[in-house]
Amino acid sequence: MTLALYLQLVRLSFVDPATAAARVTRLLDRPSARWLAFGAVIAAGAALGLLSEILFSLITGIDLGPAASPFLMAAIQGGLLLYSAFAMAFFGRQFGGQGRFGEAFALMVWIQAIMLGAQLVQAAVMLLFPIIGVLMTLALFGVLLWLITLFTAALHGFENLMLTGAGVLVVFFGSAMLIGSGLLATGLSPALLTES
User: Fold this and answer.
1) Fewest beta carbons less than 10 Å away: which of 102, 115, 143, 182?
2) Transmembrane residues, as ranges (predicted)?
3) Whole-Å CA distances, 83 to 3, 78, 175
């Protein structure tokens, strides 16, 4: 994918998500293509996450402790992306949607690709305007939820974005609570992220 096509598809994702979703699922129509794209965005995401952490420490002077293990970060990001694709397909179908996991997987990979581009912009802004760069984290979280809402509606043919967004929020925060409780129950802690 060229940069021009990437930017065009990013724009289309916001102005016409249904058409963007159709293009993404055509581009990633084969399982091998989806898994290859999945590996690429996860590897890039782990590297960018580590870079952002280093930049934040250098610019703000705040010591975040030992750097997180990129391998564990990649494993966690990969697991979360797969779960997100499952949730998009499964919960959507519970409310009358017809989307399948393969399509949801392709769309979640694309959402991650969009967020990678946004994080690159954030890293550049952080170098010039540190405070704005840090505040962009909240904005990017909102963009993530909005993209999931748009593509969930496009995948399942939902017309009411408000109800779709409410469902996304319920599933998102409900899943976060369950995953957090599961990690605590198994004795996992953030300290493990710093182990290589």
Assistant:
1) 182
2) 35-59, 71-92, 104-125, 131-155, 167-193
3) 28, 9, 9
**Contact, 113 vs 93, CB < 8 A?**
no
pLDDT at 26 over 60: yes
The pLDDT of residue 195:
47
Range of the domain at 60: 3-194
Rounded Cα–Cα distance for residues 150 and 165 (Å)? 8
> Which residues are within 8 A (CB) of 77 and not within 5 positions of it... i.e. 6 or more apart?
42, 45, 46, 49
Q: How many domains does the structure of the chain reveal?
A: 1
Question: Among the residues of the chain, which ranges form H helices?
Answer: 3-15, 17-27, 31-60, 70-94, 101-128, 130-156, 161-185
**Can you tell me which residue has the tokens 């990690």?**
183
Amino acid symbol at 180: G
How far apart CA 159 and CA 131 sit, in angstroms, is 38
